[in-house]
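hey so u asked for the seq, here:
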Amino acid sequence: MSEITPGTGKTVTVDGKDVALFNVDGAFHAIDNECPHRGGPLGEGDLEGCIVTCPWHAWQYDITTGESITDDLTVPRYETRVEGGDVLVALG
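ran it, structure tokens below
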């Protein structure tokens, strides 16, 4: 958890699935790591507030909803909770 500081994100693997995990002012948000536009790694994207920008083609997504602000695409969003020093992600 401490390696994902506020305003940053990281790709993590949860049950064999790559997930983009972000820290927004101490609140954690998780979305699918694969951009639905062309498969870019969202966990490597730049985060501004609650908006992540895909590093491949600059498509943007609201990490709190999974909705694209670039087009009508959405990316799956996953519930998170902090337990002890770990961030738990519920895939389904």
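The mean pLDDT is 95. The CA atoms of residues 12 and 69 lie 24 Å apart.
lmk if thats what u needed
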